[in-house]
Design a protein that fits this description.
heterodimer, A: 791 residues, alpha+beta, Aldehyde Oxidoreductase, domain 3, Aldehyde Oxidoreductase, domain 4, 3 domains, 7-stranded mixed β-sheet, 19 helices, 34 strands, globular, B: 164 residues, Ubiquitin-like (UB roll), DNA polymerase, domain 1, 5-stranded mixed β-sheet, 5 helices
């Protein structure tokens, strides 16, 4: 294959994924597909109460049932774990207190799944039922029985954050116009097609776990802690993955339980959650109530912003502290906000814990600030697109909260969707509307979840008689991280991706990668692969040059050849010269966090940018919204594989539309209102509009070949663009997600009665935020990349 | 979240014709076709998303028509031609639908893919030139959370073109 117009031979080509054939033939092995000889099946007894003390657990009847091999309770796994070091508040099995319907209490391993389920029914648990706390308001109020968790506070507050950057009061003084708004974003869940599943074996005093997880490393850490075993006796392997979207990023109870049961029984033990259990396992989008006040000059320039959030966290910490910071961190990465105050609060409630879902903590504030700025534009009589553009951040600048922006394609993204959609010249027709919004997202978090100074991603390459194997801990969850690794190494070695074998997501055989979350894999594993690839290439080139009697710089690499030799011949020369041919590369993000507590959430080595226009029809009689088309432009830095980038963008739009219009994770008396795939509405083939995707390439100075993320950012602008388009169509604001027909109709009814033409929350509660930590903005706005070498 | 109590299990010999191969199995009468394919026949290409007939993931073909294998008992389909994803390719040569899905990135996590491939195969057998809306209609019972459906529609169209 000859070099493409971009100068690369693999990078930038729309190639099929390395695992495409195994996926379309049914040969990919997902965790639940595994059934080694003598496998026992595990089921988990879960709490029927949202909040209760456990007074006794009697498993004797279950243990007597034929086919039951082991029964365990919290006494067998008493050590607490949790994804964040500061919130180690979960137990694999709870024996003291349950905090949501679905909290695991006991587990059974039996010869058949049905027997395990019946044995769970035979376990008798006595409870002292406590008053449940089911909303943000209840969590802020005086505790009735007892607090859900024994940390945090006052009452059921988990976390309070208060930060101020620059002179906010002075900024508001300078404003010609200020406005306040309140928004609410209902929680929703990931709904992966594959239910969580894990299977463990215990052989030669070593535990091996295959799991549907996004992060083998974090599961590995949690297992070592709870099982009290050194990490070198535990192996975690990522099975083929049936969809994550953030929902399989925490270590889960069932993963720990099957390991414990495998150790007790000496047999493989498998646990696959039912769909109902998946709804309760959750860790999805936080419901967030938001208040925002912004000051602007007469010509629409932002002078100051004050943003408050209140997150309904559910019963445990999960990623919640990070989620809380994320509701405040990225506002400044799209708009140049010279002074910014953020006050955030997460509360505990007796519901399944919330955590990270695609966009982690940022779709909610993105929805709020996009609509809020649009309302300001309408009030001061400036076109909302023009006003937003006036405030766009510029490339190579530092934000007031110290976030480093490098490449930034906001202008170009906006130009592309404006031109294609005809947004600004659109004809106004009642019932038809168009909406516009922008967004930004991280290409991986700049700091690790647990503090350490090690690389975030590592890649090893082995070349052996012409065969190339790449080892990396990255977990392909369908997004194509394996394709990125194969493309990068193939590019560097002058091969094609099919020439490269991959070994990934196995804690025994692959070096670390922190996993598929935070949109980090292309950027971080990609950079590690570039480094490892270049080192290997140098050895092959040196060996070939020596044989050719030429200078290394004269040796051309490409088309499966190294200079005068085939790749295989060159690898034999190199192996003869150097011995075993291995190379390694690693990636550590630059140290760019600001000098304040809480600065670890928000920094990323690069931010992606998106702009989106949604075209829809909204029916004033029924409130039904039908999306006709979505235009989206996404600044991915460089598309390593444009086919996969498009796939990520299209999937993000789909998921954004689901959240915008129908998906809700809500509860009645502690029970999920619709824990089934029929009743939890998600978009079908019939609901998905046509999509026009524009890939914008700004070539980031630090990304691998300039690449940034694509998996999460494009979801973010879709949601506000939908609500904005509904306003365009019907003249009413729906300030609450999802935009359901009931809310549209209610807003229209209020408009008719002469009340404010909106549906949404009317107030933001009084929250005992501490005094703001005042942070000086960075001394200069321009970014200096000298500290970090560009690739 | 109560489970059924343990009960006596009736078993019966059932002869199933799957992907052209006839197999006799002694099966508990209440076991679904989905469970039998996956657990008794090791045909794990057929996936499950809900086991309640809601998501389309477990779709197989019975005499060429899509059926949700989680709602079918083996006794109901005895002697009928059952096709699973393992029966789509001719040896190692992919079916045009499989080829198109692989080429166009229509399978991301790949978990819904077997069911969608089979529903698409059934569509193309009765309608060789489906419009995009007809494809949408035919696949409306199959959920996918990764792709936004766009690349799947593209792939079915490409396969239809190639199969003419």
């Amino acid at each position: 294959m000859t070099a493409a117009s971009n100068g690369f031979s693999v990078i930038g080509k729309p190639l099929a994924k390395p695992d495409a054939v195994s996926k379309v033939t049914g040969r990919a092995v997902y965790a639940d597909d595994m059934l080694p000889a003598r496998t026992l099946h595990c089921r988990i007894l879960r709490s029927p109460h949202p909040h209760a003390r456990i007074t006794s657990i009697d498993t004797s009847a279950a243990r007597r049932m034929p086919g039951v091999v082991a029964v365990i309770t919290g006494a067998d796994l008493p050590i607490k774990f949790g994804i964040l070091p500061v919130t180690q508040d979960e137990r694999a099995l709870e024996h003291e207190k349950v905090r949501y319907v679905g909290d695991p209490i006991a587990a059974v391993a039996a010869t058949e799944e049905e027997i395990a389920a019946s044995a769970c029914d035979a376990i008798s648990v006595e409870y002292e039922v406590l008053e449940p706390v089911m909303s943000i308001d209840e969590a802020l109020a005086e505790t009735k029985d007892e607090r859900i968790q024994d940390y945090g506070g006052p009452n059921n507050i988990h976390k309070l954050v208060a930060l101020e950057f620059g002179d906010v009061d002075g900024g508001f003084d300078k404003a010609d116009h200020t406005r306040e708004d309140v928004f609410f974003f209902q929680g929703n869940t990931h709904l992966p097609m594959e239910q969580h599943s894990a299977i463990a074996t215990y052989v030669d005093e070593k535990v091996t776990l295959w799991s549907s997880t996004q992060v083998v490393h974090y599961v590995h850490r949690a297992l070592a802690k709870v099982l009290e075993m050194p990490m070198n006796r535990i192996r975690v392997i990522g099975a083929a993955h049936g969809g994550g979207f953030g929902g399989k990023t925490d270590p889960f109870a069932h993963e720990i339980i099957v390991c414990k049961l495998a150790m007790l029984t000496g047999r493989p033990v498998k646990c696959t959650l039912t769909r109902e259990e998946v709804f309760y396992a959750h860790r999805g989008r936080h419901p967030v109530l938001m208040w925002v006040r912004t000051g602007v000059t007469r010509d629409g320039r932002i002078t100051a912003m004050h943003f408050r959030s209140a997150l309904d966290g559910g019963a445990y910490g999960s990623y919640g502290v990070a989620s809380t910071f994320y509701t405040g961190a990225l506002q400044t990465v799209t708009y140049d906000i010279p002074a910014y105050r953020f006050e955030g609060c997460r509360v505990f409630t007796n519901k399944p814990p919330c955590g990270p879902k695609r966009g982690h903590g940022t779709p909610q504030p993105r929805f709020a600030i996009e609509l809020h700025l649009e309302k300001i534009a309408h009030e001061i009589g400036i076109d909302p697109v023009d006003m937003k553009r006036r405030n766009f951040v510029k490339p190579m600048t530092r934000t007031v909260n110290w976030l480093r922006v490098t490449s930034c394609g906001l202008e170009e993204c906006t130009d592309r969707v404006m031109k294609a959609s005809g947004f600004q010249g659109r004809e106004k027709k009642p019932g038809h509307g168009m909406g516009f919004a922008i967004s930004s997202y991280l290409s991986g978090a700049g700091t690790a979840i647990y503090w350490n100074d090690m690389p975030h991603s590592e890649v090893q390459i082995k070349v052996d008689r012409g065969g190339v194997t790449v080892y990396c801990g990255a977990m392909d969850i369908g997004q194509g991280s394996d394709a990125v690794l194969a493309a990068v190494v193939a590019e560097e070695l002058g091969l094609q991706p099919k020439d490269v074998r991959l070994v990934t997501a196995d804690t025994d055989t692959t070096p670390i990668d922190l996993g598929s979350y935070s949109s980090r894999v292309t950027f971080m594993a990609g950079n590690a692969a570039v480094e490892a690839g270049r080192k290997m290439r140098a050895m092959l080139v040196e060996a070939a040059a020596a044989k050719m009697g030429r200078d290394a710089s004269d040796v051309r690499v490409g088309d499966g050849r190294i200079g005068d030799f085939s790749f295989e011949e060159a690898s034999i020369l190199a192996e003869a010269r150097y011995g075993t041919l291995t190379s390694a590369g690693s990636y550590k993000p630059p140290k760019i966090a600001g000098p304040y507590k809480g600065s670890g959430v928000g920094p990323s080595p690069a931010y992606s940018y998106s702009a989106c226009v949604v075209d829809l029809d909204a029916d004033a009689r029924t409130g039904l919204v039908h999306v006709n088309k979505v235009w989206i432009a996404h600044d991915v830095g460089r598309a390593i594989n444009p086919l996969l980038v498009e796939g990520q963008v299209e999937g993000s739009i789909y998921m954004g539309l689901g959240e915008a219009l129908m998906e809700e994770q809500t509860f009645r008396k502690g029970l999920h209102k619709w824990p089934s795939m029929l009743e939890y509405k998600s978009p079908t083939f019939l609901d998905m509009p046509d999509v026009e995707t524009f890939i914008v390439e700004t070539v980031d100075p630090e990304g691998p070949y300039g690449a940034k993320e694509a998996g999460q950012g494009p979801l973010l602008p879709v949601i506000p663009a939908v609500s904005s388009a509904v306003f365009d169509a019907l003249g009413v604001w729906v300030d609450e997600i999802p935009v359901t027909p009931e809310k549209v109709i209610e807003a229209l009814r209020r408009k008719e009665k002469g009340e404010p033409a909106r549906f949404g929350p009317s107030r933001f509660p009084a929250i005992p935020y501490p005094e703001c930590i005042k942070v000086e903005p960075p001394p200069k706005k321009e970014v200096d990349l000298a500290a970090s070498a560009a690739i | 979240m109560k489970n059924e109590v343990a009960r006596r299990v009736d078993r019966q010999v059932v002869a199933l014709q799957v992907n052209g191969e006839r197999t006799e199995l002694l099966l508990p009468v209440h076991k679904t076709l989905l469970e039998v394919l996956r657990e008794d026949m090791q045909l794990t290409g057929t996936k499950h998303g809900c086991e309640l007939g809601e998501c389309g993931t477990c779709t197989v073909l019975v005499d060429g028509k899509p059926e949700l294998s989680c709602l079918v008992l083996p006794l109901q389909v005895e002697g009928r031609a059952i096709t699973t994803v393992e029966g789509l390719a001719a040896g190692s040569e992919l079916h045009p639908l499989q080829q198109a899905f692989a080429e166009l990135g229509a399978a991301q996590c790949g978990y819904c893919t077997p069911g969608i491939l089979l529903a698409s195969k059934s569509l193309l057998e009765t309608n060789q030139h489906p419009t995009r809306d007809e494809i949408r209609e035919a696949l409306a019972g199959n959920l996918c959370r990764c792709t936004g459906y766009v690349k799947i529609l593209d792939a079915v169209e490409l396969a239809a073109e190639r199969m003419l």
